[in-house]
Amino acid sequence: MWEFYGRIVAALIRVTGDWGLAEDCAQEAMAAAVERWPRDGKPDNPGGWLMAVARNRAIDVLRRKAVEQTKLREVAMLWAAPEQHEIEDDRLRLIFTCCHPALALEARVALTLRTVAGVPTPDIARAFLVTESTMTRRITRAKTKIADARIPYRVPSGVALGERLPGVLAVLYLLFTRGYDADGEPAFAAEAIRLARLLTELMPAEPEVSGLLALFLLQHSRRDARRDASGDLVPLDRQDRSRWDSGAIAEGLELLRGTAVTGPYAIQAHIAAGHATGAGWSVIAGWYDELARVQPSPIVELNRAVAHGHAYGAEAGLSLLTVVREKLEGYPAVLAVEADLTAKAGDLERAADLFRAAAAAAPAEVERRALLARAAEL
């Protein structure tokens, strides 16, 4: 249901120009669905049902404001026959509006995740390692700045398009990640792919745009093999490759063939391509070395340790892990990686303890089950 939230908000903003009204009406439509669908049954067109409820609520609010009668007539006229390209591009326009350079990069990403994807504010706060109240204030200030600066609701052109691109790419990446995570909503990943396609059509010569779409396709190609019949996670090296989406892999590889490697998204796409084609861990480790040079971060170093552990032996991976352990203290993935490398090094008892510790810290039940299963194997 929540996969329709961003579409509704974006459409209402286009028609009314009122961010607060758009979000309030979208949330009321969601609340109405939670109340009515269990009782009356889910409609054949849930997105259309939600949009109609939100639209009607917006019209009711505007009708009560006498000064908005002219605007109400505009709303009714625009909603009567919206053009297809407006429906398709609403969220892309909204993302570019949220990613205006007048806003700090973190504010752009947070605002877009909240407005476009409907990600709860507490989840965004955790991603940015701040309190919920701090994130709420940050998002509110960003909306106020957009209104005060009269930032237009459109996809820019020329130099302005390039200025906003890094923020837009970051938003799409986080949107995809939210859908691809173990406890994520798959519709978010599909929406990130759709928006990346639109962006590729808009900027076909931009390597990082093509790289991002290739990355999404190559990662998403494994979606059906990531869980077994019981719904439990299946590690990459144990997945049934016959269940990988060969069409998505072929499209991703074709995008990379014509894409210069200039930034982190294209590099990550080559890493995903290495997994898809069985290029070997030494090749993948080489790409992680390049990624660490272009975009150094503790998470990149963590994944680099995994790649080096597979390519050059457990001790090589554990050596690199030492560098990032303090920076990511308590992060369950660090414990899981250390457990895996420790098992490869032969200390099975300690590895099992580390897998259990990682399970205790894991945020999602499906991750906890996978980690405890690894401990049980050892």
From TrEMBL:
Keywords: Sigma factor, Transcription, Transcription regulation. Residues 164-257 form the DUF6596 domain. Residues 95-146 form the RNA polymerase sigma factor 70 region 4 type domain. This is RNA polymerase subunit sigma-24. Residues 5-66 form the RNA polymerase sigma-70 region domain. Pfam families: DUF6596 (PF20239), Sigma70_r2 (PF04542), Sigma70_r4_2 (PF08281). Belongs to the sigma-70 factor family. ECF subfamily. GO terms for molecular function: DNA binding; sigma factor activity. The gene is rpoE_4. The lineage of its organism: Bacteria, Bacillati, Actinomycetota, Actinomycetes, Micromonosporales. It comes from the Bacteria. NCBIfam families: sigma70-ECF. One of its GO terms (biological process) is DNA-templated transcription initiation.
